[in-house]
TrEMBL record, chain A:
The keyword tRNA processing does not apply. GO terms for cellular component: RNA polymerase III complex. This is DNA-directed RNA polymerase III subunit RPC7-like. Pfam families: RNA_pol_3_Rpc31. Keywords: DNA-directed RNA polymerase, Nucleus, Transcription. InterPro entries: RNA_pol_III_Rpc31. It comes from Anabarilius grahami. Residues 169-187, 195-213 have a biased composition (Acidic residues). Residues 78-124, 134-168 have a biased composition (Basic and acidic residues).
TrEMBL record, chain B:
It comes from Anabarilius grahami. This is DNA-directed RNA polymerase III subunit RPC3. GO terms for molecular function: single-stranded DNA binding. Keywords: DNA-directed RNA polymerase, Nucleus, Transcription. Residues 8-66 form the RNA polymerase III subunit RPC82-related helix-turn-helix domain. GO terms for biological process: DNA-templated transcription. Component of the RNA polymerase III (Pol III) complex consisting of 17 subunits.
Amino acid sequence: MMAGRGRGQLTFSVEIVGIGKGENLPPSSVQPTPLFPPLDQKPVPLQTGEEAEYMLALKQEFRGAMKTLPFYIRPAAPKKDVERYSDKYQKTETTDNSLEWKPDWRRFPKELRVREKRPQRDKSPAVPKQPKQPRVDKEEIIRKLETLEQKEKEGSSDEEEGEKKKPEEEEAEGEEEYDEEEFEGETDYVMSYFDNEEEFGGDSDDNMDEAIY
Amino acid sequence: MTTQEVRLCGLLLQEHFGDVVEKVGTHLIRCGVLTLRALAHETKLALDLVKKSLCVLMQHGMCTFGAGRRGPAGPVEYRISCERILHMLRYPRYIYTAKSLYGDTGELIVEEILQRGQMTMSCTVKTVADRLTHNMPEGQSMDYSEVVSSFSQLVETHFLQRCPPVASTGSSNTGAVDTPPPAVAQPSEPESHPDCYRVPYINLTGQGKRRRSSEDGEADQRAAKKAKIDNSECGDEGIFWQVNFERFHLHFRDQAIISAVSCKLDQTSGEIVRTMLRMSEVTTQANAAFTQALSANEIFRALPSNYNIARPILDQYLTLLVDDPMEFVGKTGDSGGGMYVVNLHRALANLARATLESVVQERFGSRSARIFRLLLRKRHLEQKQVEDFAMIPAKEAKDMLYTLLSENLVQLQEIPKTPDHAPSRTFYLYTVNQLPTARLLLQHCYKCFDIYLFVDTIQTIGNLIERRLYETKENKQVPPFSTIQNISSKRLLEKSQRIEAILASLQATGAETAQLTEVEEMITAPERQQLESLRHHINKLDSSENQVDETIFLLESYINSTEASR
């Protein structure tokens, strides 16, 4: 039975489907169909008119707008050619673990909630340090002025206390800076030194960009 | 879910939400229902990225969640809606419809909500008012109350609806990620909620603020963020609105019927059908086969007065409509001067049939279309009969018939006279089954987006290059641009975008014209030419997408209506 079903031998006479005795059967094809087969009929031209054009504009505008919305998720930018020392201090634009928009969490399952604390901890050594220093300075100055005022009024007895306070604060700060150094482990530089550098360089960087174009 | 649909969904997700969401979405479509952990594990993406993607999908109503197989205590499972993703194809049409019905304000409201998936009313009103104010001449501004009234209109006509409320969770420990999540009931159908179309009272007065034009891009995002933050005092927090796609689809269906009648008969009969559809808009169920019966008297009274159709002429028109072979309008009784209905399902079936016929005609020529129409009318025909009835020479008719058969547009039915299925004692009947053929064509339409080189510009360029390389190879013509130039199109496009940005910033700062031309000349003439042709191609592709979607809509509604009536 099975032998009869082989290639080239059909189970029915070919004439019944309208192929005459002399005619050849079309050759079987083993190639994949062409990617762009030739068209026998040319396509009809597209609709034109105000409606079609406005829809086209809407479509393109919408597509553009979606790219700027926070819903357009970009994975963290791939590593560039070389790992640079300054990479560590560059602020990454897209952090994987924070949502740029605030969904109403009453409508979403709790498990999707991304822990928001982590990115803050990651960034904290670089960012909040800077403004702290001058602020402390100001406070110190104010305090100093106050103590001086008091000294003038009440005499010299309070002066010692004021002086005692100051070193304590400085000690506390020293500790924080020490932590940072541990965190950054590999570097020999003190954080604050590098920060200043970067801030200064930021402006000139922008200028450079414009000059290129 | 066919391969084409999955692929198209992936392309749409990628285009609107980026590669990550595309990966998550496609995997979810392939697997059906998954938990967060399984999804993260199988896609090999970072857990946080998967979480973000799911949030985006849910925000846009494309994904739902619910208690899994292991009951309410088990992990939450996610399910994606392919149908909903494919609606993205139709976004321009929704926006355009809102514009034609409710003007610029309606357009912007629908656009904003589509962009953000779901929004509170106050937030929408503020954003839209700001945008309208921005486009107005200096010194004018849009009043919030006007936007509110447009919004209410959209809700009253059911084009917008509230997002269905999520059954609240048991425990409310915030921030606990690792503890097993509380079970959440799957969101119910929006229509089943009684408040679905109730506009809340919002405490919002004032006018849209003009933002400074110098910081356009940034301000956009910032304004959006700000709006989200400071809507706390408007009294509608937690009430989110979404676009009611079903309602839009009903509108599209009605428009398709009206325009078909206008084309087939004339403008006036189109208006009569429009009046009938408008009258029964509220009383007819969404998936009803025909509208509520209306008497000729009622129709006459409801006709817009500026049409000046006399009563006897209306009767003539109605008779004409009933007699028309397309069967758009049917007569159900004689009381009240005649009772008339619009045959919604029949109309859709006839429109779909016309689409199929025209596809055959445009792809295989008018004589093949003759055979196709013949089979549609006579149902079953033997090969000899086809040749005779179509009045086409036997050899050509055979060729056409077999081409149609191999494209699956025509089906072959064997009826054996004896149980041994011997070909000599078997009838071979050719037939056209409209429903499967429509399904097939629908898949072709989805596939079109493969051929029509979809996705964002860069991929389009990639495909265009492929196409052009092919053309040049095939025709042995001198290529319009060298291959190397083609490959650099992507870079060129980026360059032109950069230069445009520089020009814009220069203009904003009031630079001299000499300076401007200098920057403009950074794009050379051949480059400009190449860009021009690139834009031309992209525009063409985009508008063909819009048009293919029209066909998709028609076929889809036909298939849905036929399935519903079974």
